[in-house]
Each structure stands twice: as structure tokens, then as C-alpha cells.
Amino acid sequence: MIFPKFNNGHIIDKIREQYDPLALHVKPHVTLVFPFESNFETVELQEYLSAVLAETNPFELILSGVTLTGSGEYLFLNVQKGIFE
């Protein structure tokens, strides 16, 4: 996860408190790797991700709107502008 600086963090916090059971434990964030099962050891995965992310330059990210998954487990802030434009 990365923890960007949000100008409207209080709005994000209010939405998360309503829907996210971890809102009081984890700051607003962008998930870089969604949880998955793997045969890799945690250390191997951390080393790989560190190497890949070390080559990633900073980029502007603008989020707008919220999508709730069909099962209601996750909230997603929709990317309006970002690295994959």
C-alpha cells in the first residue's frame, strides 16, 4: 500500500468509517498489490515488489467517485487520472 496525501482526507475517512471495518486501523491508501495466494515466500515477494517499485517514477493520481464491489467487501475510488492514461 501507499499512503498518498489527500486534500480531502476527511471525506474519505467519513466514507470509510461507514463501509470499511478497518477504517480506524489503516489510513486511506492505494493498494499496490491486491491480496492473493502464492507459493512465494513473503521475503521473495517483498524483494520483487521493492525492485519493481524502485524503477517507478512519481505520478499524479486523481480519484473521483466510488465503486462498491458486488459483494460489498471493498470500496474503490475510481481513477480519473493516473499512470495508465
What characteristics describe this protein?
2 helices; 16% strand; 85 residues
What percentage of residues falls in helices of 4 or more residues? Answer: 25-40%
Q: Biggest sheet: strands side by side, in what order?
A: 1-2
**What percentage of the residues does DSSP assign to strands (E)?**
15-25%
Average of pLDDT: 83
Separation, N- and C-terminal Cα atoms: 21 Å
* Strands, count: 2
Radius of gyration: 15 Å
| Secondary structure tally, helices | 2
Low-confidence stretches: none
| Helix-strand pattern | HHEE
Number of domains: 1
Tell me the major beta sheet: 2 strands, antiparallel
Sum up the overall morphology in one term.
globular
Q: Structural class given helices, strands, pairing?
A: alpha+beta
Task: Provide a descriptive summary of the structure in words.
The relative contact order is 0.16. The protein has one domain. With 85 residues, it is an alpha+beta fold. The chain contains two helices and two strands. The protein has a two-stranded antiparallel sheet with strand order 1-2. The protein is globular, with a radius of gyration of 15 Å. The protein has helices at 9-19, 42-54, and strands spanning 62-68, 75-81. The two termini are 21 Å apart. The mean pLDDT is 83. A hairpin with a 6-residue loop joins strand 1 and strand 2.
